Fold this sequence. Notes:
Chain A has four helices and no strands. By secondary structure, chain A is mainly alpha-helical. Chain A has a single domain (3-80), classed as Cytochrome c-like domain (Cytochrome Bc1 Complex, Chain D, domain 2, Orthogonal Bundle).
Amino acid sequence: MADSDRGAQLAASCASCHRPDGRDDGIPPVVGVDQESLASALLAYKSGQRESQIMHAVATSLSDDEIAIVTRYLAAQGKNGKQP
Amino acid sequence: MKCWTRRQFAYAAGGATCLAALRPRMARGEAKARVVVVGGGVGGATVARYLALSTGTLDVTLVEPKSRYTTCFFSNLYLAGLRSFESLTHGYEALRERHGITVVHDSAVAIDPAGKTVRLKGGKHLPYDRLVVAPGIAFDYAAIEGYDAAAAEVMPHAWMAGSQTKLLKSQLQGMADGGVFVIVAPPNPFRCPPGPYERASMAAYYFKQHKPRAKILILDAKDSFFEQDLFQDAWTRHYPGMIEWLPAQFTGGVKAVDVKGRSIKTASDSHKATVANIIPPQKAGQLAQDAGLADQSGWCPVDPATFESTLHEGIHLVGDAISAGEMPKSAFATSSQAKACAFAIAAALTGSERFPPRLFNTCFTYLAADDAVSDAINFKLADGTIKIADIAISKVEESTEVRRQAVRHAQGWYAAFTHDVFG
């Protein structure tokens, strides 16, 4: 339960730019994407392997543990069809 | 006091005391705890929405006099002719219907912190267990002689979106080619640090197409401004010779306006304006001033972890009205504070686990229709305040494609962000 609360609170930051209904209005969706793809994207932004000024700042603010928690939460949201 | 999770509590001896303290109403089997949120802008609406999303156990009431909210952010695009006014305007239907928030269209006129009630203009008293005040900004009209609310109907500030934004747009449309548009930029701190300069850029974008002989003069209260190198580079590339910026060290600052004579007086000179946009010095919104939530700085001091007022217990504040350390007064920063505040209130009233707040800011700024820049800032709590942990800003030498991509991201951001605020 605590893990899911933590996931919800971390995912709240994502919702400032990424639509929770999976729509793409210019920024790619993060809901409905599997956990592994999300986590490897965040890790690539964190290392600088993938370039984005904003996503680099977001990813470096997350520990690897937090990346695991938030991506697990987002992937589960997609499956449940729920909106964060 | 340590915040206990429900699970921890179940195994703890003497936990009943802790439960009674943390969850007073629920523990006694009484009605839901009540949170009243005053102000339906980005801060208030986001706190209300995230309280409703994160707990099903709170009674959330949002008080806002207007039935529709027009965003200040992206309003410069309306001035440029790049967005409609309607596209910047949002209602409260989703907050009411999808999230179960009670939306009351009235004004809060007084707060009784001891009795824990808010009095509305319509006469009603709303009792609360926690109150959130998100009053936005007020103008310090006394700072510029001759400028007040009545003068703003002739020389608009257009710094609170709505009829003021429409007024400024109609004046720019009515201006003859060869006219001078004067923008008076405020001292720090103020709402939207890149805003006055984005406004100059967007007015220039409009003039370039419709009134190519027009000039823009920025009379600044400061000697430098946010993203100055990016703006000045863009002005040279897109609008050569059109925009002149005068820092306070050259003019001595704006002292007075003559509304009838359409002139603006600095310490050293007088400038005629065909159209004038006066953005006055700012302070926390009026309700915060009246309720004793602001200090001598004019802004509201808060605990940076919970956004609870340090002057009145049980009252939280978010957004442009607060002293938030190194966080800028922006919609994004406000939303970030509002989520942290909602989670802190949920933890205090329901006993849910509290995590450290995550505070972040991104601003997209337009320089031309296909040229935008952005910044990304992480914040940390340190020394009892909010400090910048990490900052990245667009650079002058970026490619055209990077700038075009920032425009696409900006559009996507507006759609997602306003959905995140208003549901």
